[in-house]
Design goal:
7 strands, alpha/beta, 37% helix, 203 residues, single chain, globular
């Protein structure tokens, strides 16, 4: 009997000013362009140096907060964060620091993953941030899916994008619109991630 359950790709991001969220939505669009694939958009709460500060149980806008069960249930993962001094944001790092049970059980091992980011300046650490987000995914045994140079926008973009993943130059105030090249690369990354998830499920 054929499997009628759709393949779920988790698109997990953190966004302060909306740019990374917009990339996440484009990646989700790419995921859902693949027949049989659904994108599950999730975010993480902010962290604070003030220990009394708390976030609401449900975000005021955007995607719901991620649960560890989302990791266990997904067939693939797209992970996104704005750049913080060439690294992922503390809120995203804090979430991954709490995934030891999933690491021990191998819940993510063998699943495909991709990464994406946005920066305030054009040379603000896009590639180092993408690489930093790969590190916990590799520890979890995930298979990294990048963007090959068969994607023509990689050769023409002046606003972000690399073989490591989709990226966007958002500007200091986050007011730089997503370019056509960046849009195409984000959609392509989501589509490629979903296609790889389908192939892995068929093997």
């Amino acid at each position: 009997m054929p499997n009628t359950t759709n393949t779920t790709i988790l698109v997990l991001y953190y966004s302060r000013h909306g740019s990374t969220r917009k990339l996440a939505e484009l990646i989700a669009q790419g995921v859902e362009s693949v027949p049989g694939c659904d994108a599950r958009l999730r975010t993480v709460p902010a962290v604070s140096t003030v220990t009394e500060a708390t976030e609401p149980d449900v975000p005021a806008n955007g995607a719901p907060y991620v649960e560890l069960s989302d990791l266990e249930q997904c067939a693939g993962l797209a992970l996104g964060s704005p750049t913080r001094f060439g690294n992922m944001a503390a809120a995203m790092k804090y979430f991954w620091d709490g995934t030891a049970p999933q690491w021990l059980s191998g819940a993510l091992a063998g699943k495909p993953a991709s990464v994406f980011t946005s920066t305030g300046s054009l040379h603000g650490g896009q590639e180092s941030t993408l690489l930093s987000m790969m590190i916990p995914l590799l520890h979890h045994g995930m298979l990294i899916v990048g963007l090959p140079y068969t994607q023509p926008e990689l050769m023409s973009t002046s606003s972000g994008g690399s073989p490591y993943g989709a990226s966007h130059w958002a500007g200091v105030n986050g007011n730089q619109a997503i370019s056509d090249d960046t849009r195409a690369l984000a959609v392509a990354l989501g589509r490629r991630l979903a296609q790889n998830a389908i192939k892995l499920q068929e093997t």
